[in-house]
Amino acid sequence: xxxxxxxxxxxxxxxxxFFSCAxxxxxxxxxxxxxxxxxxxxxxxxxxxxxxxxxxxxxxxxENKSDTTSAAxxxxxxxxSKNLTDWKNExxxxxxxxxxxxxxxxxGCIMERPKVIYNEKxxxxxxxxxxxxxxxxxxxxxxxxxxxxxxTGPFKYLRSGRINPGKLPFDMTDEQRAVFDxxxxxxxxxxxxxxxxDAIAKGLFVKRDLEGGQMARDMQLFVDDDGKGYHIxxxxxxxxxxxxxxxxxxxxxxxxxxxxAPAGHNEAPAIFKKDGxxxxxxxxxxGWEPNEARMFSAPSIWGPWTxxxxxxxxxxxxxxxxxxxxxxxxxxxxxxxxIFMADNWRPKHPSDARYIWLPILFREGKPVIKWxxxxxxxxxxxxxxEEMNLAxxxxxx
Length: 397
Ligand code: GAL
Hints:
Distance between the termini: 66 Å
Radius of gyration: 23 Å
Strand content: 35-45%
Bound molecules: beta-D-galactopyranose
CATH architecture of one domain: 5 Propeller
Order of helices and strands: HEEEEEEEEHHHEEEEEEEEEEEEEH
CATH topology of one domain: Tachylectin-2, Chain A
Strand order of the largest sheet: 17-21-20-19-18
Mean pLDDT: 94
Number of strands: 21
Shape: globular
Largest sheet: 5 strands, mixed
Low-confidence stretches: 15-22
Number of helices: 5
Oligomer: single chain
CATH class of one domain: Mainly Beta
CATH superfamily of one domain: Glycosyl hydrolase domain, family 43
């Protein structure tokens, strides 16, 4: 009797261990800068991307880059994953147009930094991206929008254009307006002089572009807790960021916008919200070459936005670890778990560009980014990152 119950107990114990191990898969390593293979063993081709979490699945949207050019030869890609490390190629969700050279998105145009958000009210998936017209360099500085019924598309292309034609920033004071009214573009022919910077900060290019709408290049989307959508973009010839409110269906702009860090030369905005504070990480403007990240915070999406030092620490922090911000991903279901996503561009071989994903640490509530050769999502809950947060308190820069 005793022997039997011992045996049953032992067998039960072994089975329990077996099933609990089988049920709980260890998170896989995230190794920034290496090749990231999809379900077909091919390096993920979703650059300048962003991630949407929807009903248990992460959808990663990004630029398909070819081997020899950064122009759009294929379109916008989507990959899906349940665990953020195994990625299934869902294909091209918005292809370039190959049979109509008059299309905005004709093959050879520039489609950059695509982001997708889900609209609860309409049940639609809305894709915005930075569009440059074929053969026109970066002069068009347009935003384009497409919509789909499913996260994996197909997305229907709607239109492109500049932003909020005829509208001034809604927070412009009467005093600022009076100065703005006196700005005369003909007086500032020479760029990069102190007086020119001063005029830019006062809205010289807002005025120049007022009629046709504000320029928009590197961009981000953000949906707030109340469901309102925002478009954040490098405007005014990349000199000033703007944040514009999206309409209820996210398909247009409402006309309400603010300017951030006027004349501060910021690109690649990545925004997230933690404990009621909005954080934004950006880069400087050095094209495909990496530079030092910048960081801002605000108590409201409309500001005031305060600049902080570079959040990166350690070796190569001054080059954002050779990356440029593209998105900050809140990990679903894990409190205070945010992943900083950046691109390590390879302009000579664009499709070989690599991804940098690093967990965001917090020192006294302020984001800090540190390089890890390897880390896992489990580090958000196994105490490792918390320990580092504590260690950061007495540290360095
Ligand atoms: C970067 C920008 C990229 C791309 C590139 C072109 O600064 O972040 O999205 O536009 O310039 O040189």
